[in-house]
Amino acid sequence: MIKLRIMGIITMLCSLLGCTAQTKGFESIGAEKFEQIIADTAKVIRLDVRTAEEYAEGHIDGAMNIDVLKDDFKDNAITRLPKDKTIAVYCRSGKRSKKAAGILAKQGFNVIELDCGYIGWTKADKPVTR
C-alpha cells in the first residue's frame, strides 16, 4: 500500500514537472542554428534585449533593440514586433533573453532564443556590427 502511494506521488511529480518544462513556449538554440535561422530576414526579426549602451557597443547586424529591463518592454514589443514573423531574441549571456522570450511567447509570438547570448555569439566568431 505504501509502495503504491509513493509510486503515485512520483508519477504526479513527474507529470507536473514535465508539463512545466513544456510550457516555456520558445526554443533556446546555439549560435550555429541561430545564425542559420536569422539568415531568413523575410521571416525573422532579430531582437537585442540588452541596454541601449550595450547595443551601441556591438550587436548582431540588423537587430532592433528593446531593453527587457525597462518597465515598458512588453508594451513596446507588442507595438513594434510583427506576430507573423519569428522573433530571434538575444542578450549578453542568455539570462535576459530567456526572460524576454518567455514574455513574448506568452503574448503569442513565435520565439527562438540564443542560448549562449552575445558573448557566445562573438566567441563562435559570428559577425557583429559595431
Automatic annotation (TrEMBL):
Pfam families, sorted: Rhodanese
Q: Which residues form the Rhodanese domain?
A: 40-130
User: Which N-terminal residues, if any, form the signal peptide?
Assistant: 1-23
Q: Which InterPro entries match?
A: GlpE_sulfurtransferase, Rhodanese-like_dom, Rhodanese-like_dom_sf
**Gene3D superfamilies registered for this protein in UniProt:** Rhodanese-like domain
> Which keywords annotate this record?
Signal
For this protein, the record's PANTHER family field holds:
FAD-DEPENDENT OXIDOREDUCTASE (PTHR43031), RHODANESE-RELATED SULFURTRANSFERASES (PTHR43031:SF18)
List the protein's name. Answer: Rhodanese-like domain-containing protein
UniProt source species: Xylanibacter caecicola
